[in-house]
Amino acid sequence: MFGPFERMVAFRYLRARRQEGFISVIAIFSLLGIALGVATLIIVMSVMNGFRAELLGRILGLNGHLGVYGVAGPLPDYDPLADRIRKVPDVVKVVPLVEGQVMASAGGRASGALVRGQTIEDLKSGAVGQHLRAGSVDDLQDDGVLIGTRLAMKLGLRLGDDITLISPQGNPTPFGTMPRIKAFRVAGLFELGMSEYDSSLIFTAMPIAQTFFRVPEAVTSLEVFVDDPDSVRRTTHELSAIIGGEARIIDWQQANSSFFNAIQVERNVMFLILTLIIIVAAFNIISSMIMLVKDKGRDIAILRTMGATRGMVLRIFILAGASIGIVGTLSGFVLGIAFCANIETIRQFIQNLTGTQLFDPTIYFLSQLPAKVDPSEVAAVVGMALALSFLATIYPSWRAARLDPVEALRYE
């Protein structure tokens, strides 16, 4: 498309002489603007993808993809129902669960918590058993509980200490309802890596939880794990046909819809805002090219008189302007990918340099800054930057091709 003569002239115009230094400075800033815009977009989109993937992995690693709840209270006869659910092709595992809110206290300190009772086998094979920092799941038989490391720090507890749980579902007495209080032994400490879970969850064996919450031979829900969490709606329809009106079904998308919708909205807004950086850089390309055309009016007229066609002049200035966009886009691509690959190291370096905490795990629920590069999104960002850079060269190049040699050389 571009001949040797056109490439030579285009690159010669990009190497401005001393009197054309201002044009070269604008071109350099245009290149830097596109590079920073592309790199920032790639970094922000990757961090948002990593944030969503990490949260989704931690939430779905602990909670089921589907929750089956009783219509009006606990599920009393849950074993036959669980067997029917396990026969659905996409279902991987069904976990019976007893769950209830409590107030946990120790040593004069107190904190709200959520108690979960599961079978020993399910606890060993689940996320909690894989993230134990101390103790053992087998020690839960004798009124033992597993608590998160952050909850242990908050209450000042260590392995083997006693923790008192107070349930709002109290015991009726002649003097009114008295809250149910029971002391348990800390049999293990877990760290799931998500601050909210590590500071508010308590796990115990199923019989202990059934006794404490007074749901003998019953569970509060069945957690269902499936092959593909993204196609959970299809599994929901299949389970609805099997269960009928015996229970309610809530999938993870419904349970966390507001949370993940907020992440998606924030991601879209950030994409729109950061795209403006690339658009501004594209306008800088237009201004620098228009100034270049104005400055090279006499040269263009001479080229035309020597036999250069309008198409050749058009291609010369398109190549000159597009080169700025291409180099800037490729530089931004390399910078963005390199930043994402070393984002945690860079975060630690900046924190040590400034002495400030850039990423608080108690706010963002994660212990480190995640980044997940999506090739399709990176391709879209690079393609958008190249397209804007190319479009920015069309009008100045058209003006250069339309230049009348007679008018340009009239007063020379």
What is the compact description of this entry?
This protein has 412 residues and is an alpha+beta fold. It is built from 17 helices and 10 strands. Helices cover 57% and strands 20% of the residues.
Give an account of the 3D structure.
The protein is α+β, with helices and mostly antiparallel strands and about 400 residues long. The protein is built from 17 helices and ten strands. The two termini are about 35 Å apart. The model has no long low-confidence stretch (mean pLDDT about 80).
Strands in their spatial order, largest beta sheet = 2-3-8-5-7-6
Instruction: Report the portion of residues in β strands.
Output: 15-25%
- First-last Cα distance: 33 Å
- Main β-sheet: number of strands, strand sense, barrel status? 6 strands, mixed, barrel
Percent helix = 55-70%
Q: Total strand count, please?
A: 10
Provide a count of the helices.
Answer: 17
What structural class is derived from the secondary structure elements? Answer: alpha+beta
Radius of gyration: 32 Å
Q: Could you tell me the mean pLDDT?
A: 81
**Unreliable segments of 5+ consecutive residues:** none
Q: How would the global form be characterised?
A: elongated
Order of helices and strands: HHEHEEHHEEHEEHEHEHEHHHHHHHH
